[in-house]
Design goal:
A hairpin with a 6-residue loop joins strand 15 and strand 16. Helix 2 packs parallel to helix 3. It contains 5 helices and 35 strands. By secondary structure, it is mostly beta strands. Helices cover 11% and strands 33% of the residues. The radius of gyration is 36 Å and the shape is elongated. The strands form 11 sheets. Strands 15, 16, 18, 19 and 20 form a 5-stranded antiparallel beta sheet that branches. Strands 23, 24, 26, 27 and 28 form a 5-stranded antiparallel beta sheet that branches.
Length: 540
């Protein structure tokens, strides 16, 4: 009785002290008789409890909950569901389910098992049945519920070398076997005596006590972690794969190494195509493994790290890409679970926007644009050609300059030219990366001192300033009039801002408040009729 669970919140005084609507449930409850007098007059429950307590330390307690007729040993779904709800409410961690029936599944019972524990499901161990039948063909419940927090147990024979002849089995429905023949355990006669029992009802408690020991050794383990530990360490038995999911019996004493999930996980973008993932180093870990993927990808890329390292650099990545990553560690021969999924947004190599052309009074032609990365001595590349030509002339800029000046003789008066600009992003420890080209712009070389735009509308847009903090001005020019809509989307493609207005053909510079946006990269689009123009900007 020193292993009884005791409800200290409700002493025997005829009052429902703990407010759970059950008076004096000091030692549990009998849901069949609706009484706190839950003594075992049948012996089945006592025999199961005796197996559990003989193989677990003293801090494992038995919560006594009855749901069956003490004379016939039979019960009903409603009482069983109530018993599960009570155990869940009162803090039970593992439920021994040494009972079963054949027929149709009960959604009430299945939901009770599934929902016990809420977001942290409780562990259930069910006996497979004692008719020597195949549960794949003749369904037996609750053992046949294929739930992540339930494991079913068949019985081994006395030699522990084969399944017992009476034991049910199932290649796809019964997970594991455990001792279940000629088991010595506690009886109900006074004074306490031992008895020998057979049945899968007494194989299940062997799995329960193994699960309890695993939980004690691994406090952070979930029900599914415990089940995985039991199944992964099952010892093969002859023809086991023909009758059991694991093909074997439990390996009693297997505690599973507590290989905890890595902590302190984060990542930094070292360049626009390189990130380094960091974590807290565990001296007990043999090595670590990082997996990563772009948002939306169903598959992971896995990379390892050298033993003792607490970081891993990963490249080349997609500039401007959004990535997810996780870390796990190897403890001896066992991998931990992966850490939670973390996210990182890679920097963007922006093409220049807001490009302007004009011809100075001295005849020089000048292109200029806002810096893609203010304060950074990056280079730009200008390409130009006469309209209709297929060949671009390529010219670079001095690092740090956001303009290019051409002598008067560079362009022929009256000829229309096309030009575009792109950014060279210098990447430390990796290859240089060019941005996309800006949209193609047009200008007609004019008489010195006269500023002339091309005959075609300037199909370009510009964002000023870029990067920006509180507000931007979005400039665009079209030959169309009509309803204009400006849309801003984040790096995940989510619409974060929309602005509509009436636009008359020509140049327009629209002010937009971005103070409520989070820091990051954004895409901006303007639509006027069938005219669409895209651009990018950074909020910081």
């Amino acid at each position: 009785k020193e292993r009884y669970w005791i409800n200290d919140g409700d002493p025997i005084n005829g009052v429902d002290d703990d407010g759970n609507c059950l008076d004096d449930d000091t030692f549990g409850w009998d849901f069949f008789e609706e009484s706190p007098q839950n003594h075992d007059y049948h012996g089945h429950g006592t025999a199961a409890a005796g197996i559990i307590v003989t193989g677990t330390p003293s801090d494992v307690e038995i919560m006594n909950i009855k749901a069956f007729d003490p004379e016939s040993g039979k019960g009903n779904i409603f009482d069983i569901v109530c018993a599960i709800a009570y155990g869940d409410m009162m803090g039970a961690d593992i439920f021994n389910m040494s009972f079963g029936y054949y027929g149709s599944p009960s959604i009430l019972l299945e939901n009770a098992i599934t929902n016990a524990g809420g977001t942290e499901p409780k562990l259930f161990v069910a006996s497979a049945g004692n008719e020597g039948t195949d549960n794949d063909l003749i369904e037996h419940f609750p053992s046949n519920y294929m739930l992540p927090n339930l494991i079913s147990a068949a019985a081994m024979d006395e030699t522990l070398s084969h399944l017992a002849g009476f034991s049910n089995f199932g290649k796809t429905t019964v997970e594991v076997a455990a001792p279940g023949t000629q088991i010595t355990t506690a009886g109900i006669e006074f004074p306490i005596q031992t008895i020998l029992v057979d049945g899968t009802s007494f194989a299940a408690p062997h799995v329960v006590r193994e699960a309890a020991n695993i939980m004690l050794n691994n406090p952070g383990y979930s029900a599914q972690d415990v089940i995985s530990c039991i199944m992964d360490n099952a010892t093969p038995i002859p023809n086991g794969l023909d009758s059991l999911i694991t093909g074997g019996q439990i390996d009693e004493g297997q505690s599973c190494i507590d290989c905890t999930v890595p902590t302190g996980v984060y990542a930094e973008a070292n360049s626009i195509i390189r990130m380094t993932v960091y974590w807290d180093n565990d001296p007990a870990a043999t090595k670590y493994q990082v997996r990563y993927r772009e948002f939306g990808s169903p598959s992971w890329t896995v990379v390892g790290s050298a033993p003792g390292n607490d970081f891993k650099s990963i490249y080349p990545l997609t500039f401007g890409g959004a990535y997810q990553f996780q870390v796990r560690k190897l403890c001896g021969t066992e991998w931990s679970a992966y850490s939670p999924i973390y996210e990182i947004y890679m920097p963007v190599c922006y093409e220049p926007s807001g490009i302007h052309y004009f011809q100075k009074p001295n005849g020089y032609h000048r292109l200029e644009w806002p810096h893609a990365y203010p304060g950074t001595p990056i280079k730009y590349q200008i390409q130009h050609r006469p309209q209709g030509s297929s060949t671009w002339t390529v010219i670079g800029t001095t690092p740090g300059n956001n303009f290019k000046q051409f002598p008067p003789s560079t362009f022929t008066q009256g000829v229309t030219y096309q030009f575009r600009v792109r950014t060279l992003c210098d990447i430390t420890g990796g290859p240089n990366v060019w941005s996309f080209h800006s949209p193609i712009h047009h200008f007609t070389a004019g008489i010195p001192g006269i500023f002339r735009l091309g005959e075609e509308p300037l199909q370009a847009s510009g964002v000023f300033p870029n990067p920006a903090t509180d507000g931007i001005e979005f400039a665009f020019q079209t030959s169309q009039s009509g309803q204009a809509t400006i849309t801003i989307m984040d790096a995940m493609g989510r619409n974060v801002h929309t602005k509509s207005f009436r636009h008359s053909a020509g140049f327009r510079q629209e002010k937009i408040d971005i103070s409520s946006l989070e820091n990051g990269a954004y895409f901006i689009t303007v639509r006027v009729g069938d005219f669409i123009q895209n651009d990018k900007f950074v909020k910081w």
